Every structure is written in structure tokens, then in C-alpha cells.
Amino acid sequence: MMNSKNLAKSGKEPNQIEPVKIILADDDKDDQELFKEALDAAEIPSDITAVDNGQELLDRLKDDAEPNPDMIFIDINMPVKGGKEALREIRSDQDLKDIPAVMLSTSGHPQDIEDAFSHGADLYVQKPNSFAGFVLILKKVFTMHWAKALMNPLKDIFFLSDKNISRRD
């Protein structure tokens, strides 16, 4: 929490929200662009870095010159190093294990969801078929993040898709 003394030092206006630092690991450039556009449409102040695979994600996270992000979004199916493997490595690293990790996939297969949960993901998001669905999901993800609901995720709210989100709200 920033008090008025720290606020004066930071040079920020009191009503300015600090952007959420995000790393998106997704090999599909169109999906990267869609994600960024949906964040903008959801009016989520963010500073996003996109990488093309799990190995680039790990390299970025382990780069001491780069601060850890507030959250990472990881596509499950990527070349070089897939999302599940990258997640396992992140969760086994003392310096990285507490970064909230959201798995992204077109799959809603129960085994993929179970694997992501058991390997320590904080949330599993099925990529929606529409832009409006993506905006809705991102709003929900960040509402949960800001409410600290992504810490120690509960199994019954672990899987989000644009088909089940409206039933929960």
C-alpha cells in the first residue's frame, strides 16, 4: 500500500493505477494480439510482454535484469517447451514459484485441466471463440487477482470459459 509520503516520492497521482506487469507465453501471434486488444477493451491497465514459447518465458523470468511480473499467462501447446513443462519448472523455482500463473488453452478437456491444477496453475482459462468472451474472461481473471482469489485456488473456480462465466456471476 502506498502512503502519501511514498506517493509524493513516486510522482504518481493518487488516482493513477499501477499497470499490472504481465508476461504472455503464446506461440500464436494472432492470439497475442487478441489478448492485448482484449486487455485494452477490458480497461485493465497493463504492461505486457509477449514471448513465443515456454523456454523464452523461463529465460525472461530468470533474467535478473527484469523484475518479476505480477502475473503470467501460459498457452499449453507451444513449440520448444510447452506450457505444462514451463509451469512445472516455474513452480519448482524458489524465486518464481509464487507468481500467479494462468494457463490458456483451446482445450476444455478434463485431463488438461487436472494436469494444470496438479502442477500448480492458479487458473485455467479456455480461450473463448469471441472477442467479447475474451474481454469478459479477462475482467473476471483480474477481479479474482485483485481480490487475491488466485492464491491457493479452489478446484470449483479453477476452470473459466466464456460458457461458464456468466453462470457464476
From TrEMBL:
<feature type="domain" description="Response regulatory">
    <location>
        <begin position="21"/>
        <end position="142"/>
    </location>
</feature>
<dbReference type="InterPro" id="IPR052893">
    <property type="entry name" value="TCS_response_regulator"/>
</dbReference>
<dbReference type="InterPro" id="IPR001789">
    <property type="entry name" value="Sig_transdc_resp-reg_receiver"/>
</dbReference>
<protein>
    <recommendedName>
        <fullName>Response regulatory domain-containing protein</fullName>
    </recommendedName>
</protein>
<dbReference type="Pfam" id="PF00072">
    <property type="entry name" value="Response_reg"/>
</dbReference>
<feature type="modified residue" description="4-aspartylphosphate">
    <location>
        <position position="75"/>
    </location>
</feature>
<keyword id="KW-0597">Phosphoprotein</keyword>
<dbReference type="InterPro" id="IPR011006">
    <property type="entry name" value="CheY-like_superfamily"/>
</dbReference>
